[in-house]
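=== RUN LOG ===
request id: a7f3
mode: sequence -> structure
chains: 1
length: 147
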Amino acid sequence: MANILVLNGPNLNLLGSREPAHYGRTTLADIDQHLQHLASQAGHTLSSQQSNAESELVEYVHHAPGEDVAFIIINPAAFTHTSIALRDALSAVAIPFIEVHLSNVHAREAFRQHSYFSDLAVGVISGLGAQGYELALDAVIRKLSNH
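=== RESULT ===
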């Protein structure tokens, strides 16, 4: 059994109502509940956190080793393109992570096409909506079973 941490960045608390053409109508609570169910079925525990504050996300990452987190799934949202602090935190704790984006960031504005995280990530899933989280969790479960 492993601990998996899901981190969600700014404005993801508005999922379901914010720009549904880009982000869909599924709420973050729906996504979290579904992921917890899937992780539990696979014999793992999963906790989810969302914050609009960069410093809070950094703190969640810093606490992850003390909570025996084996893997992180992160949607840094707007911090994808701006947060060296969050990148440095992920690098410092050296916990493998998968980067998830609901929309296809490469089909959007030019400033959204650069990620401070992708080169550190085990993998990146972009443009598949809420299903991207499920695919990330499936990859995490497979990687954990190979250890």
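=== NOTES ===
The first strand starts at residue 3 and ends at 8.
The CA atoms of residues 13 and 29 lie 8 Å apart.
=== END ===
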